[in-house]
TrEMBL record:
Gene name in the database record: yocH
Designated name of the protein: Cell wall-binding protein YocH
Keywords: Signal
Record carries keyword Signal: yes
LysM domain boundaries: 28-71, 85-128
Length: 285
């Protein structure tokens, strides 16, 4: 009888150790199931598509059944970056609001979480503490280099004879303003290409209203978002679209392949009115 009791407890200990090992493994990795996508996995585990791609070194949204994915930042990464606190994004949050709440800077939040833009969504987990990011001091240096009042007066006195000798050569006010007007109307710099553009809404048949990167378009009808082919335009990029404005490449589509984009508009009537156009775009980052 004693031998049976000892054997029972030994078996229980072994089962407990194996169960603990499986729990530890499941806490760090997720096995991709048939029909899974990065977006559905991010929603299930309270993270974002961008973080999943970063933790797993993915260059695209393509995943395969039985693939093992990290669903949280490894402890080694947290230790390296000295990350102590995690904040779960709530509805109505912005990086600026979160930075004010925790007494940090927006650029620090972007650096700690490896974000490519200011875009965040409810349920996303953000590190709110880490290694400080140096603050630029160019404005301070510029102020300190300005000449003292006595130097300004001397410069004005030296330049006065030149102004009196040739007043007619000074540019008229309209001519002086011309360069500034030209700069304001100039289009942003970036990788330019010509694409075929169509439009879509958040209320089409079978649409959830949530993009491939987690943007809720029904809650943000004024958001400028375009669907792209990630092999041509990386998801998360800022793109200037002729006649539409600067948008986030935040969605994909089965028919969006190659040099094609789909611009988001609030209503079906606007989508129908938009039609099919050939437009120029510039990928800004």
């Amino acid at each position: 009888m004693r031998k049976k009791i000892i054997a029972f407890f030994t078996g229980a200990i072994i089962v407990g150790v194996l169960a603990g090992g499986q729990a530890s493994a499941s806490a760090e990795a997720y096995k991709v199931q048939q029909g899974d996508s990065l977006w559905s996995i991010s929603q299930k585990h309270g993270t974002s598509v961008q973080q999943l791609k970063s933790w797993n070194d993915l260059s695209s949204d393509l995943i395969f059944p039985n693939q093992q994915l990290h669903i949280s930042a490894d402890k080694a990464v947290n230790k390296e970056n000295n990350i102590d606190d995690i904040y779960v994004v709530k509805s109505g949050d912005s990086l600026w609001k979160i930075s004010q709440k925790f007494g940090v800077q927006v650029n620090e939040l972007i650096a700690w979480n490896k974000l490519s833009s200011d875009l965040i969504h409810p349920g996303q987990k953000l590190a709110v503490k880490g290694n400080p990011v140096p603050v630029q001091t160019e404005t301070v240096n510029t102020v300190s280099q300005q000449p003292a009042p006595e130097q300004k007066e001397a410069v004005a006195q030296q330049s006065a004879p030149k102004q009196t000798q040739a007043p007619a050569q000074q540019p008229a006010p309209e001519q002086a303003q011309a360069p500034a007007e030209k700069n304001e109307s100039a289009s942003p710099q970036g990788n330019e290409m010509t694409v075929t553009a169509t439009a879509y809404t958040a209320y089409c048949n079978g649409c959830s209203g949530v993009t491939a990167t987690g943007i809720d378009l029904r809650s943000n009808p004024g958001q400028k978002v375009i669907a792209v082919d990630p092999s041509v335009i990386p998801l998360g990029s800022k793109v200037h679209v002729e006649g539409y404005g600067t948008a986030i490449a935040g969605d994909t589509g089965g028919a969006i392949k190659g040099n094609k984009i789909d611009v988001f508009v609030p209503s079906k009537s606007e989508a129908m009115k938009f039609g099919v156009k050939t437009v120029k775009i510039k990928v800004l980052n």
